[in-house]
Amino acid sequence: MLTDLQVAIFGGDARQLEVIRKLAEQGANLVLVGFDQLDHGFTGASKMDIGEVDFSKLDVIILPVNGSGPNGEIDTIFSNKRIILTAEHLKRTPKHCHLYSGITNAYLDKIVSQSGKGHTQLFDRDDVAIYNSIPTVEGTLMMVIQNTDTTIHNSNTVVLGFGRVGMSVARAFDALGANVKVGARKPEHLARISEMGFIPFHLDHLQKEVTNTDVCINTIPFQIVTSGVISKMPTQTLIIDLASKPGGTDFKYAEKRGIKALLAPGLPGIVAPKTAGQILGNVLSQLIGEQMSTRKGKV
Ligand code: NAP
User: Which residues are in the Alanine dehydrogenase/pyridine nucleotide transhydrogenase NAD(H)-binding domain (predicted)?
Assistant: First the structure.
């Protein structure tokens, strides 16, 4: 149980509702910032503007999955108010106050380090990233179906990257009968791609490998689908870029060539917010509980 713990939840999408539900069930006292348009009330939770929050009482701060925008803006679908989290806010929290987000960025790293607080990125954990890859794959299938007039079955599908998302995407497209090629750079990844029955290729040969692609799914958070690569693709190719913003595709060049390229962030929150929120809520309640026990042990 998380009784007596003061937890502030800043913005987010529908996934946060499951996080709120889980932590409320565990008895935490919740401060909800960026939820003024949410009709639903939760026991033990109070909605506030950021200016009303007493940061000196917070044990935990939970940010949206993307952390923040590049200047500290907190995304929220439940409010039109502008919310900016600053180092000054964090400096007012108790020494033990800990932040959680899905991923991080340079701004967040800076204010966390300036304030000397702890910060956990949930998607650094393999278990969270692997569970989260399930709704990500379902969202990818949805986007491909919506944006093509051919079946996935028999399509030439290229997956770039063979991490937690890339592996799940390759497996799902293969199961639907696509001809799946996967690009990676590590010999052990190339070996595993081959073992799983997909066609492996080294990313050094990417330009050569995309000449008959129907669907290209990028999971590499690095400029990889460059103008040189796009120029070798057939014009009917659909590019779905799953990598975190700004993605790994030269979108301007794709548009110039008439190739449809879509950046598709936050798919779990769009296609399965309940499941995706439960994944986050379960791990957060476990981590916060551990944090609380460690702190009590030290007192
Ligand atoms: P991951 O397990 O770290 O996998 C990343 C893959 O990219 C690995 O195969 C890695 O290869 C490769 N890679 C990274 N930098 C590279 C570079 N410079 N050159 C070549 N290959 C490189 O990450 P993940 O969990 O699969 O997530 C992948 C991306 O999807 C992340 O940006 C994540 O934020 C995003 N994501 C998006 C959604 C969505 O809804 N769109 C959902 C979940 C995750 P090496 O092992 O060789 O480094």
Answer: 149-289
pLDDT tens by residue, 59-108: 999 999 999 999 999 999 999 999 999 999 999 999 999 999 999 999 99
Please state the atom number of ligand 1 nearest to the C-alpha of residue 269: 40
Beta bridge partners of 12: 76
Using the mean position of ligand 1's atoms as its centre, give its distance from the Cα of residue 27 in Å: 36
pLDDT at residue 248, rounded to an integer: 98
Total count of residues recorded for the chain: 299
User: Can you tell me the distance from the alpha carbon of 136 to that of 228, in angstroms, rounded to the nearest whole number?
Assistant: 28
- Neighbour order of strands in the sheet with 260-263: 199-202, 179-184, 156-160, 215-218, 238-241, 260-263
* Structural domains present in the chain: 6-124+272-297 (3.40.50.720), 129-265 (3.40.50.720)
How far apart (Å, rounded) are the C-alpha atoms in residues 243 and 262? 11
Residue whose entry in the numeric block shows the structure tokens 């103008």: 227
Helix (H) or strand (E) holding 260: strand 260-263
The C-alpha angle 170, 175, 181, rounded to 5 degrees, equals 35
Closest-CA residue to 10 (of 26, 24, 27, 30): 30
Task: Tell which atom from ligand 1 comes closest to the C-alpha of 186.
Answer: 47
CA of 163 to the centre of ligand 1 (A): 6
Q: Phi then psi for 189, rounded to 5 degrees?
A: -70, -45
